[in-house]
Amino acid sequence: MAREEAPTRRYVVAAMFSEMTVGAEIDRKQWPAHVTVVSNFTTDVPVETLAAGMRRVLAVERPLPFEFGDSALFGPNRDIPVRLVRSESMAKLHDELVTELTSVGVVADEPAYWLTGYRPHVTLAPSVGADLTPLRYFRSIVIARLDGGRATVVDIVKILADAPAPTDVDVRRATLGDAAGLAQLKVEWANLDQSPSSLAMDEFGTALANWIRRQGDSLVVEVAVADERVVGMAWMVLFERVPDFSDRQRLTADIQSVYVSPAHRGRGVGRRLVDALCAAADTRGVARTLVAASARSLSLYNRSGFEESPLLLQRRSDRA
């Protein structure tokens, strides 16, 4: 007997300002105030798979700080009034969810609205009104199934609403005095099975400081600092290439170990660190800057001007 194929369904992921419940039905012309996180997509995978993917991305409870921006007109005829939303954390969440959902097999209705084409906004429908003052924070992220003119909420993840006010984060060039903080972040980033002892951390901090000193001008390190503590880092190594007849001082840069502590993610700190390194590379006249990106960090580097290169190869040694 032939196996019955799963039906193809259409879904959307949205950040809601109001309380929602699983099973709630919404007239799509009367959506309550929301920001679309992942626009309409189709798939035949079970909704449980979609929900599991969303929960993996949102495993760490986090606020989604935002500011309302300019008004705009969306839609093919430019006749849908919207209010743009400025939020690095929302853009990062979008990128992470698109990566996760794409991996389980979803197809975007409008791929141009995903990743670099994503523009978070609130549609100014009659059900929302023009006064957005009461919309202070998101209460949940929902997956809704779309059936004609109706939307049905099929899964909900609550959002941390009463988040503490964000601490100012300063991005600056690292000094040798930051070596201990950088060592701590390197260990945090490595996700070791067992935390090193205080003595081992002191030794690593000293070794790292000595290594930084030896690199001289061939190394640039940027740090993010909050409450006098190093909470983010980004490293860039510069090296000379073989001279050409017409270009005898050829420099290439390699960005490495970009990391931000979880408590300070989703606020654009990583982007600021990378942009600071790119500015330093431009100042030094570097023609090409390289980075080995992960799937989740790809969009971060895309926004900072990096492009994929299908001809850039690597060889790993068996002893690496």
Walk me through this protein's architecture.
The chain has helices at residues 47-57, 88-104, 179-190, 198-215, 269-283, 298-303, and strands at residues 9-16, 25-27, 34-43, 67-74, 80-86, 107-108, 121-123, 140-147, 150-158, 170-173, 219-226, 229-240, 251-260, 288-291. It is an alpha+beta fold. Helix 1 (47-57) runs antiparallel to helix 2 (88-104) and helix 3 packs across helix 4. The longest helix is centred in the middle third of the chain and has 18 residues, at 198-215. The protein is elongated and about 65 Å long.
Sum up the structure in keywords.
Cyclic Phosphodiesterase, Chain: A; Aminopeptidase; 6 helices; elongated; alpha+beta; 2 domains; five-stranded mixed beta sheet; six-stranded antiparallel beta sheet; 320 residues; 14 strands
Would you spell out the secondary-structure blueprint of this structure?
Elements: E1 9-16, E2 25-27, E3 34-43, H1 47-57, E4 67-74, E5 80-86, H2 88-104, E6 107-108, E7 121-123, E8 140-147, E9 150-158, E10 170-173, H3 179-190, H4 198-215, E11 219-226, E12 229-240, E13 251-260, H5 269-283, E14 288-291, H6 298-303
Parallel strand pairs: 13-14
Antiparallel strand pairs: 1-3, 1-8, 2-9, 3-6, 4-5, 5-7, 8-9, 10-11, 11-12, 12-13
